[in-house]
Design a protein that fits this description.
Protein name (chains A, B): Iron-containing alcohol dehydrogenase
Strand order of the largest sheet of chain A: 1-8-5-4-2-3
Domain Alcohol dehydrogenase iron-type/glycerol dehydrogenase GldA (chains A, B): 9-176
Strand content of chain A: 5-15%
Domain Fe-containing alcohol dehydrogenase-like C-terminal (chains A, B): 189-364
Keywords (chains A, B): Oxidoreductase
Family (chains A, B): Belongs to the iron-containing alcohol dehydrogenase family.
Shape of chain A: globular
CATH architecture of the largest domain in chain A: Up-down Bundle
Number of helices of chain A: 15
Distance between the termini of chain A: 34 Å
CATH topology of the largest domain in chain A: Dehydroquinate synthase-like, alpha domain
CATH class of the largest domain in chain A: Mainly Alpha
Oligomer: homodimer
Helix content of chain A: 40-55%
Largest interface: A-B, 43 and 43 residues
Chain lengths: 384, 384
Amino acid sequence: MNNFTFKCPTKVVFGKNSVEQLPTLLPKDAKILLFYGGGSIKRNGVYDAVIKELKGHKFVEFSGIEPNPKYETCMQAVKLIKDENVDFILSVGGGSALDAAKFIAAAAVLEAGDPWEEIIIKAKPITKTLPVGDVITLPATGSEMNGISVISHKEKGLKFAWSSELAYPVFSIIDPTYTFSLPQRQTTNGIVDTFAHIMEQYCTYDVDTPVQDGFCLSVIKTIVKEGPKVLANPQDYNARANIFWAATCGLNGWCGVGVIQDWASHGIGHELSAIYGLDHGQSLAVVLPAVLEYCVKEKAQKLALLGREVFALEGDELDVAKRTVDKIKEFFLSIEAQIKLSDFGVDKNDAAKQISERFKERGTVLGERANIDAKATKEILLSC
Amino acid sequence: MNNFTFKCPTKVVFGKNSVEQLPTLLPKDAKILLFYGGGSIKRNGVYDAVIKELKGHKFVEFSGIEPNPKYETCMQAVKLIKDENVDFILSVGGGSALDAAKFIAAAAVLEAGDPWEEIIIKAKPITKTLPVGDVITLPATGSEMNGISVISHKEKGLKFAWSSELAYPVFSIIDPTYTFSLPQRQTTNGIVDTFAHIMEQYCTYDVDTPVQDGFCLSVIKTIVKEGPKVLANPQDYNARANIFWAATCGLNGWCGVGVIQDWASHGIGHELSAIYGLDHGQSLAVVLPAVLEYCVKEKAQKLALLGREVFALEGDELDVAKRTVDKIKEFFLSIEAQIKLSDFGVDKNDAAKQISERFKERGTVLGERANIDAKATKEILLSC
């Protein structure tokens, strides 16, 4: 096991009617920014439930933060925070709203410089943020229990992740009933995202970490079993709860401490979102299998273990590893994900050229063995 | 899955030479109480390593806290804290020292009343504590990442657990190399304790929690595989690291959120420690298999899953469940645990009589179905 440091101070309140605990979680005299995206939180009832619990609190609203949240929109919220002397941000919605909330919490109290440059590009350690709490309604990013945030810059056509020890939510409320009304596309995206998070942490080379490997396989087994259930019956509470908890555990650090991590699929996927506007989950459904295929020999041990434990495959290691990638593609197709660039009208030659040129220019090298360079990225995208 | 609330704010620093990070973790101007047990921390080098990192800090020492830490000894430390105006407690050693540190951290700032009565017997919610950090050197209790503390009252012959959201360590440093020199008895006790912690959380009835069940089985698989390795080669770093991380994960809440829990074995085991002085791990090696045997029908589903996944057993559920209990006994014996009361010179008739009388008097009822009453406890102990 590698040395590691771990801390996740977020309080999680999980289950039916957990929004009712909001009054005990919010600081008494805070001026709150109620921060959300489009109208879905008004359709699924969570907006009304939150408003009811905000009785007695001073609050202002900011709506309209988009999927793949934009820097430009975030800066409008920062202005509102300053104008209204907000001192607590309550994000209601999915990981995009929460990622944006984390960014504006840091940007609003940044002492000098441009927030995009200072927080994301220079990635300077942040020294303070406003506190953020959330009611998370989409099982996908794991943002509800980590200090990670992904922000896009519309004008520059860029999408990057940043993170900070200070960016963890103070609390996260998870009521799986609010996922009953998710469109199939978002349910599917969330399952693919969770699958990919685990693979980025698990599917590298072994440094003797059986506890963590078992945790990873438990999350994978759960989503492979429960994923089809939520698609078949969107109101299956138990399945929705298991999918949500799997998503949260998929990126709260529990599965990834002390192991070798990858993150090449996310690195390439973010470019597909930035250039062609693919949903995050859509980009991963395309890129992850291609990366696994490209690296199948060096990832054979972990792939084979997964294939044996999750898909009951038998045979020699490399053979099982290859068939495991096929099984992952089959699983993605079974939950109605699309796994080819052409499914999204994207020309693979154009993607391969543009993204490999970006990586060349930036000197980007990805993967746990630092061997996914511009050339490898081109090959991977040409196979998508 | 049941509704749950989870928060564990402890920062974990894990790995070789992690004690070197102590200066970055300790508050700059704090007066520190260096709190430890007997001489083992001087023999294994951790005392010297800690003293080196305390350079520049004001500190006083309190040594002599015993295994099954006593209230009476704790109160001596409380006096020292008050006399010396200590404002940070650094526990160095095993779970007993840390449990005691948590208790004195609460007792030292208790505003009124007797700490045993207020904190443990009346279990009033604590409103403040001194901060506690630790260098934990024994993989067993999981105390390094939870808010639980177990204290014994020598005069009254009692042993009870208490817990608080405020009792979590601020940080826990885990360097598995300090476990190389553990006596076999302590290594064995720690493995049994971890096994029992998981069983108390896992082996009840199913409320559809596949993520958590998989986490539990991962910890069990790890200790079944790595336990014999550390006994055969005490200086096997990887095995020691895996055993330690399994112990920490065994009781940090990750395996137990949203599930039905038991804790009957611990409830009975604490009495054996209080009356006959058995080590905590020793008491569990005796009681856990007996409780599982007594409840084999109602625990059959989870026992059988464990038997299939960990011990590769096959057959119908109840049959596999019964053979799983046998396998657990075999495993305990294989790591040199003793599983009969007579191994410790304790008369089972005496234990059954004394403990069932205590439970009758207190109205104690244990187990996930609240069916382990005084009578059941008597039967269980007569089978030990």
